[in-house]
Design a protein that fits this description.
- The protein is mainly β.
- About 0% of the residues lie in helices and about 15% in strands.
Amino acid sequence: MPFYEYRCEACGHELEAMQKMSDAPLTECPECGKPALVKQISAAGFRLKGGGWYETDFKSGSKKNIADSGGGDATPPCASGACPAAKD
């Protein structure tokens, strides 16, 4: 379940709440009791990494761009008319 950040517009109190995505937003401030809580926009607290994600994510040095590391022609064989499956 994700954490959501809230701020009370009446007293300025800030809090985090772990809620399901389907849960209704909180409205009542636990500090002052007024219905003035507003959900804040914040950065996600996770990273996607491992096989299957974008090749440039979370890599460094020579591993940064795998597609260009071969030094050869980057044009696919079928684009140049030399497709192995299209033999006469």
